[in-house]
Design a protein that fits this description.
With 352 residues, this protein is α/β, with parallel strands linked by helices. It has two domains: 202 residues, 3-Layer(aba) Sandwich (Rossmann fold), CATH 3.40.50.720; 106 residues, Rossmann fold (3-Layer(aba) Sandwich), CATH 3.40.50. 39% of the residues lie in helices and 16% in strands. It is built from eleven helices and twelve strands. The strands form three sheets. A seven-stranded parallel beta sheet has the order 1-2-12-9-8-6-7, sandwiched between helices. A three-stranded parallel beta sheet has the order 4-3-5, with helices on both faces. A two-stranded antiparallel sheet has the order 10-11.
């Protein structure tokens, strides 16, 4: 008799409307190795269990804690060597509640990790000229290691112009055209935090990518496209990639075609911003499903707003080998990778 089960590894913790096993590309600390071994043990169990499906729920919260410890060590090493403490500059425009929450989470994480920060707040009526002037001032401020402007911005401001105004070496969001260009050329650069989080989760969980089929649902320039670039590029290049065969689906991909593609995929990455886009009948047994979606919906039972992803989590976890939850999956790792970029910017400043 076949039994469906879900195993949770704990406490490890949008532009779409409608080779071989895992290899560490650099020396890893012991903590990373412990996390990798935990997931490796889960994988062995999956291979041994042929009569049932067991989904390992990857805890981004616990992975982020491990990354936090590594970042804290890096920060203290910088300071001990007589260097300035890394500093994150944030610009917040308008009073969007979600944006305020995101900024609060980022600055709180920075404080916990020993990274200083300050937030410049401007009303939604601020002119683009004034905003660009603030960015220029912070670019020239040697005390600012990393700089980000919280998106989205009001309609009258050109987001691309704003992103390109940030000095590439301080661009911890990785949205500057230079950093995106380097990413596409497999060169070392600031990688956008959410794509970096997805890649880090895959690596730390020991999920094989080389030669595997990957479907990325969503082609946004800040999430979907960078994820695809990270996963399909050569693992032996300057900025190692995943050596996977990657297909990008988007709003013009027919639903039935999307189902065909995901049914063949070893890894499905949902980054479309559509609640419940990926359902159980779209995923093959033993696939890895990474849910990047963040959707606020009203709970029909409680009437309160809650967060859900792009994946039908409860159903898909009965078929998948690995799956990330929402919340508690990619989100915590995104903030952690932003902090890692800030420390990287501080280190890079020492050589400029």
């Amino acid at each position: 008799m076949h039994t469906n089960m879900a195993a949770s590894v704990s406490p490890l913790r949008s532009s779409f409307r409608i080779c071989n096993g895992f290899a560490l590309h650099h020396h890893c600390c012991r903590g990373k190795l412990r996390v990798h071994r935990k997931y490796e043990n889960q994988r062995r169990h999956l291979h041994q269990t042929v009569t049932r499906h067991v989904a390992v729920v990857i805890s981004g919260t616990e992975m982020a804690r491990q990354l936090h410890r590594e970042i804290q060590r890096d920060v203290e090493e910088l300071v001990t060597q007589g260097n300035m403490r890394p500093h994150l500059g944030v610009i917040l425009v308008g009073d969007d509640p979600a944006s305020r929450t995101y900024v609060k989470n980022k600055t709180r994480a920075a404080s916990i990790l020993g990274i200083s920060s300050d937030t410049v707040v401007r009303p939604g009526t601020v002119s683009q000229k004034e905003l660009l002037g603030i960015i220029d001032q912070m670019n020239r401020d040697w005390r600012v290691s990393g700089l980000l402007v919280q998106l989205p911005l009001p309609a009258h401001i050109d987001e691309r112009a704003v992103c390109n105004a940030i000095a590439p070496e301080k661009d911890v969001d990785g949205f500057h055209i230079v950093n995106i260009g380097k990413l596409c050329l497999d060169q070392r650069s600031m990688i956008p935090a959410t794509p970096a989080a997805v890649w880090e989760i895959i690596k730390r969980a020991g999920i094989e990518t080389a030669g595997k089929n990957v479907v990325v649902a969503g082609r946004s320039k800040n999430v979907g496209m960078p994820i695809a670039m990270l996963l399909h590029t050569d693992r032996y290049h300057e900025r190692p990639g995943g050596d996977a065969t990657v297909t990008i689906a988007h709003r013009c991909t027919p639903r039935e075609r999307l189902k065909e593609l995901t049914g063949l995929a070893d890894i499905v990455i949902a980054a479309a911003g559509i609640p419940g886009l990926i359902t159980a009948d779209m995923v093959k047994d033993g696939a890895t499903v990474i849910d990047v979606g963040i959707n606020r919906v009203r709970d029909p039972k409680t009437g309160k707003m809650r967060l859900i992803g792009d994946v039908d989590f409860e159903a898909v976890k009965e078929k998948a080998a690995f799956i990330t939850p929402v919340p508690g999956g990619v989100g915590p790792m995104t903030v952690a990778m932003l902090m890692k970029n800030t420390v990287m910017a501080a280190r890079n400043a020492l050589t400029h």
